[in-house]
Amino acid sequence: METTRLFPGMDAVVASDDGVGRDQSSPPRLRRPDRAQVLLEPVCLEHRLPPDHPARMIWPVVERLDLSAFYQPIVARGSEPGRAATDPKLLVGLWL
Question: Which of 21, 58, 60, 78 could form a disulfide with 14 if both were Cys (CB 3.0 to 4.6 A apart)?
């Protein structure tokens, strides 16, 4: 039975418990911590601003606006496939 090599032209490197036979010419491949990594942590958005912060005045104003013209062209509806649209209230609140 003839054996074929998966990667012809490459020398086989045999691993052993004592490290002998391993390719020592290249640096070791390590997993290192990424200090700038963004963390996912549970956060309550309501608690991010103090109760008396001026930004809290914006949301009650936005909720009183008639934004029906912004909702009409949204294609994502009901249980149809597709990504949900960003609520126009949020976008107007950010703009204000």
Answer: 21
